[in-house]
Amino acid sequence: MERGGLLVEKHTILAVVAGSRAFGLATPASDTDRRGVYVAPTEWFWRLEKPPPHWEGPLPEQFSWEVERCCALALDGNPNLLEVLHSPLVEQCTPLGAELREISPAFLSRQVHRTFGRYAYRQLARARARRERTGEVRWKHVVHLLRLLLSGEALLRTGELCVEVGPHRERLLAVRRGELTWDEVTAWTAKLATRLDGALPVSPLPESPDRPRVESWLASVRHRNLSAP
Asked: Which domains occur in the chain, in start order?
């Protein structure tokens, strides 16, 4: 077995279902997106060949990160990693995984205004360019950008990340089915972007994440994982 596959199989501390099933947007045709975090044995970092920072598989639609890479991305406000740490659909959680979820507030800061908005605007630019080039719209991608704006605005206003779309489910599903016009969708996008901006000045989130708390936890994981089998 390849080293990455061994890490996922033997050293995963947190495994969740992400994507549409976690968001509450699944249909009968939806895939099951699995995401996880593994901890490489500390001694592996002493070798010339370092452990892989992430790994795809071994199951279809499965992707995992080494815990250090996970922490770095989450500290930067990466939506994918933050949603992994807050997914309501947990398939595996070791004591270390429980600790990681417990410190998840340390990753949250006002930086999410930039990261959630940036991801959404990129998706919008791609959707607009494709529409101008081909006349087609990939509504699934449009739903993703709308969901990011909704999630980011709620996170900034409340200080808590809720992965499920809740009351917005039916309208988002209507967008995915192509039942809203492009003008209606872009108008909704503009409204959500304005709300995202308006949430920033009143957000209870700190300006920056609690990097010392995360680094202290990560160092403790490395120490405890010395001589791990």
From this structure: 3-107+210-224 (3.30.460), 112-199 (no CATH)
Residues in a beta bridge with 14 = 37, 93
15: β partners:
36, 92
Rounded CA-CA distance 77/108 in Å is 7
Q: Are strands 33-38 and 62-66 parallel, antiparallel or unpaired?
A: parallel
Distances (CA, A) of 211 to 5, 104, 189: 29, 11, 32
Average pLDDT by stretches of 10, the chain with 229 residues: 80 95 89 95 90 90 95 96 96 97 97 95 93 93 95 96 94 95 95 96 97 97 80
pLDDT value of residue 28? 85
Structure letter (DSSP) for residue 136: -
Q: What is the dihedral of CA 81, 86, 87, 91, to 10 degrees?
A: 90
- Written as six digits, the tokens of 84 are 């992994």
Contact in structure between 153 and 192 (CB atoms under 8 Å) = yes
Question: SS3 sequence, 168-183?
Answer: HHHHHHHHHCCCCCHH
Helix H segments across the chain?
A: 3-11, 19-23, 67-75, 79-86, 95-102, 112-134, 139-158, 169-176, 182-199, 211-224
